[in-house]
Amino acid sequence: MNQKVRIRLANLKDLAAIVEIYLEAFNKKSGGSALARDLEEAEAKSPLAMLYYVAETQSGVLGYISACPLPEAMDIYEIAIRPEARKQGIGRLLMNKIIDEAFSRKIDLVMLEVAVTNLPAISLYEDFGFRVYGRRKHYYQDTGDDALLMRLDLNLEPMLA
């Protein structure tokens, strides 16, 4: 990737790109209907709003991450990258942003679910220090795949010099 990637909060203008990436990345024919409501709540600064960040270059939005910031945990819902932009560190940039956001909100736990068959994603999460703490059988209705429950415990204590 020759273009500089910028990570920023998503807004309603990103809706079409996010839906397109969602459908493409998750092999869906339809869906994403809740995205507009989520982005509207985020723009209205609702305290219960989902977080959406996009990765973009001059050529457009290449990926996004969504998470629900709860008082006790940052729950990552989705991370998706356009197929042609994968394996270029964009997922890593988006994960860094969500983890930074958890730190800034003093949330010491980041959680997610991932299909047992999604080996590239599992590898990425393990690189960040996530560990498996459970499994949900037949979690994904469209494929019947199990989901691994993964967590990352953050140390919010300041480093001693």
SSE blueprint:
Elements: E1 6-9, H1 15-25, H2 33-43, E2 51-57, E3 60-69, E4 74-81, H3 90-104, E5 109-115, H4 119-127, E6 131-136, E7 147-153
Parallel strand pairs: 4-5
Antiparallel strand pairs: 1-2, 2-3, 3-4, 5-7, 6-7
In words, what does this structure look like?
The chain has four helices and seven strands; from the N terminus they run E-H-H-E-E-E-H-E-H-E-E. It is of the alpha+beta class and 161 residues long. 29% of the residues lie in helices and 30% in strands. The chain has a single domain (6-153), classed as Gcn5-related N-acetyltransferase (GNAT) (Aminopeptidase), CATH 3.40.630. It has a seven-stranded mixed β-sheet, sandwiched between helices.
Radius of gyration: 16 Å
* Number of DSSP strand runs: 7
CATH class (first level) name: Alpha Beta
Number of helical segments with 4 or more residues: 4
Stated plainly, the CATH topology is called: Aminopeptidase
Q: Name the CATH superfamily classification.
A: Gcn5-related N-acetyltransferase (GNAT)
| Helix percentage | 25-40%
For the termini, the CA-CA separation is 37 Å
Order of helices and strands: EHHEEEHEHEE
Assign an overall shape: globular
Task: List low-confidence stretches.
Answer: none
Classify the secondary structure makeup into a structural class.
alpha+beta
Strand percentage: 25-35%
Features:
globular, 7 strands, 161 residues, Aminopeptidase, 29% helix, seven-stranded mixed beta sheet, alpha+beta
